[in-house]
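I'm curious: can you give me some protein's one-letter sequence along with its backbone structure tokens because I've never seen that pairing?
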Amino acid sequence: MPLRSSREVLGPALTFALALLLIAEPHRAACANAQAASPFPEVPLPDQRRPTYKAAYLALGTGVLLIGGSFVLAAEADDAYQQYLEETEIDQIGPLYDRTIKLDRLATGSLVTGELLLATGIYLRFLRPPHAALSLTLRPGRCALAYRF
């Protein structure tokens, strides 16, 4: 019979001893007094007011009305120009031409202003993050009164 080394003899014995130790340990852990977790502290949420989009809707509505009005003014300018072309009286040609130019410029101005207001309304409603436009800041290196746009 060959001689066994101490490693071969102690290996199974050590494994058996560790297994017994692990089996006995859960009993000890089960009897331990477990501390209940403390509840999380309640953190008050800041009062979130829903932003009002009155200025955005006003700009959108006014822009749509001005764009629509520009088409009406352009049609009137076209009618005045047609009257100017058909007029044979020399006294009437000057005032009809002036009326045509005035209506055409009003139509152009109404269209451009309406488009600017429409773009402003879209920016104010959908692109700009809501924040206070006027705020008081009391920090070093800052203005006392700030206006954001």
About this structure: The chain has three helices and two strands. The mean pLDDT is 82. Residues 135 and 141 are 15 Å apart (CA to CA).
